[in-house]
Amino acid sequence: MKSKSSNKSFGILFFIVFILISLWPLLNGNPIRIWSIIVGILFLLISYTKPKILQPLNSAWIRLGELLGKLIAPIVMALIYFVLITPLSLIIKLFGKDLLNIKFNKKVSYWIDRKKNLSSMKKQF
Predict the structure, then answer these.
(1) Fewer CB within a 10 Å sphere, N or C end of the chain?
(2) Does an H or E element contain 28, and which?
(3) Roughly what angle, to the nearest 10 degrees, separates helices 34-49 and 7-23?
(4) What is the largest distance, in Å, between two alpha-carbon atoms of the chain?
(5) pLDDT at 96
(6) Using the 8-state DSSP alphabet, how is residue 103 labeled?
(7) Are 72 and 78 in contact (CB under 8 A)?
(8) Mapping DSSP to helix (H, G, I), strand (E, B) and coil, where does residue 101 land?
(9) Nearest to 44 by CA among 83, 14, 80
(10) Residues 6+ away with beta carbon under 8 Å from 40
């Protein structure tokens, strides 16, 4: 899935990220990270003056996101399947439940009677 990302918005995003990184130590009473503020301000200045410079970084960032999506999504889906669905299925089979009503029984008719009468097909709208 390819999506266009603005180099300017990419620069602003990384400005915000680096500012947050610089301010994070304040939560523990530590000093601000000056290097992170400098890098953040550089990203902000570049994004407003020459956003074309950020194109290679933006492209690499998008490719990294696509790669992570291809790797992480199957792992998460497998975890959901094997941790949630498989044990639930085994428990249901252990109790002999037929939630979908698909067991075949020759003595019972599978015709489902409609409880609600449908109106005529005239004047549908």
Answers:
(1) C
(2) none
(3) 170
(4) 80
(5) 86
(6) -
(7) no
(8) coil
(9) 14
(10) 14, 15, 16, 17, 18, 19, 21, 22
How far apart, in whole angstroms, are the C-alpha atoms of residue 16 and residue 22?
10
**Alpha carbon separation from 31 to 25, 27, 35 (Å, rounded):** 6, 10, 12
How many C-alpha atoms does 14 have within 13 Å on its Cβ side? 22
Q: What is the average pLDDT score of the chain?
A: 88
Q: Count of CB atoms within 10 A of residue 25's CB?
A: 13
- Altogether, the residues listed in the chain come to a count of 125
Tell me the residue type at 124: Q
Quote the tokens at residue 48.
């407003």
What does the block give as tokens for 3? 């999506």
Residues 10-64 pLDDT 10s: 999 999 999 999 999 998 989 999 999 999 999 999 999 999 999 999 999 999 9
Long-range pairs for 23-29: beta carbons < 8 A, 24 or more residues apart: none
Q: Return the structure tokens found at 5.
A: 């990302």
Residue 43 contacts residue 55 (beta carbons within 8 Å): no
- Amino acid identity of 119? S
Q: Which two structure tokens, joined as six digits, stand for 58?
A: 């933006």
